[in-house]
What does this fold into?
Amino acid sequence: MSTQPPFPSKLVFASYLVYSPKGLSDVSGQSRNVCYSVKNNGTIQGIRSIERLATRVAESREEFPFLGEILDRKCILVPVPRSSLMQPGTLWPSDVICDELSKNNLGAKVRLLRRHKPAPKSSTAGPGGRPDPEVHFETTVLDPNAIELFQVPKSIVLVDDVITRGSTFIGMCARVRTQFPNVSIYAFALIRTESYNDIESVRSPVRGVINYEVGRLHRVP
It folds into this structure.
């Protein structure tokens, strides 16, 4: 596999919620329910969970200024493709998140990226089997029709429902940089994973960094 793509050594990200896949506390259990609802575009008190949470993100910019620094009306929101090839009628959570962020004046959605080959699904991969950034890069292409829709933007924000290690974001960032090498690129995930510990609150906005060296990913926090 090629080692030529300019994979970033650091990528700034923001997230709004946190969930614990293994925690035993009531809050950790609640976080799993929220994560499931987001991934399936379910409802919270009769309102679509993604719609409600995108509104909360917009309302939280004064309390957490970094949200407004990454998400603003001048940025381009790029939904991260699913690991599988898209089929008609398939739910695409990242795309729905971009729609709802755009409705709250937090950027304009452009479907810039698409899979041309399926990638292994991280959530079902065994130990050591999670796809690395190179896999995400190699299985993704830029849509030439989408590129024609906009001028060189102020910034590009890659959007996903959940961030675990950050491998997908690093691979997608490298792919976008092949066309926009001088544009600031950030990442936003509605939810970040706290893999091993209980959590104190589901709402936990952070600005963090994904650090990458070949073969090694480290997300902070």
